[in-house]
Amino acid sequence: MSFVFVALGGAIGAVARYAISLIPVKSQFPILTLVTNILGAVLIGFIVGMTDKKADVSQNTVLFWKTGICGGFTTFSTFSLEAYKLFENKAYGLGGLYVGLSVCCCIFGILLGKKLATALG
Questions:
Q1: CA 43, CA 27: separation in Å to the nearest integer?
Q2: What φ, ψ does residue 33 adopt, rounded to 5°?
Q3: Degrees (nearest 5) of the Cα angle 103, 106, 111?
Q4: Residue 46 C-beta-side C-alpha neighbours within 13 Å
Q5: Given pLDDT bands bounded at 50, 70 and 90, which one contains residue 22?
Q6: How much is the pLDDT for 78?
Q7: What is the per-residue pLDDT across 34-89, written as a single tens digit (0 to 9) for each?
Q8: With helix as H, strand as E and coil as C, how does 1-31 read?
Q9: Angle separating helix axes 31-53 and 92-120, nearest 10 degrees
């Protein structure tokens, strides 16, 4: 049964990611993937923060949100490919900026999500 929860969450997360990718942005810098990864980091931090405090949350609920929605929503493989392409095209400054922002902002996003969960819970 846990596979059903992961699959449903994954479908929702993937559709949400696709919807964000349709926002018309013209830039060499992959801003939409960066935004998606940061939002996913905030969301997973929030989920962890909420479930850490509440022992009565079912494992299937955690799987739905954390593995399903967040796993389907975040785009680390896309991030890796885009970073590779920036470096391959000798856009070293943009590539370094993209990697640095992605890592730092997403770690901060986890912290922010957990803080939000603490404030709301």
A1: 26
A2: -65, -40
A3: 125
A4: 14
A5: very high
A6: 86
A7: 999 999 999 999 999 988 877 788 999 999 999 999 999 998 888 998 999 999 99
A8: CHHHHHHHHHHHHHHHHHHHHCCCCCCCCCH
A9: 30
Q: Token match 């990864």: residue?
A: 37
Other beta carbons within 10 Å of 41: 23
Instruction: Give the separation between CA 116 and CA 50, rounded to whole angstroms.
Output: 9
* Long-range contacts of the stretch 93-97 (C-beta < 8 A, 24+): 94/28, 94/29, 97/29
Q: Give the pLDDT of residue 77.
A: 84
As given in the structure block, the two tokens for residue 79 are: 């991030």
Report the Cα 81 to chain-centroid distance in Å: 16
Q: Decide if pLDDT at 121 tops 90.
A: no
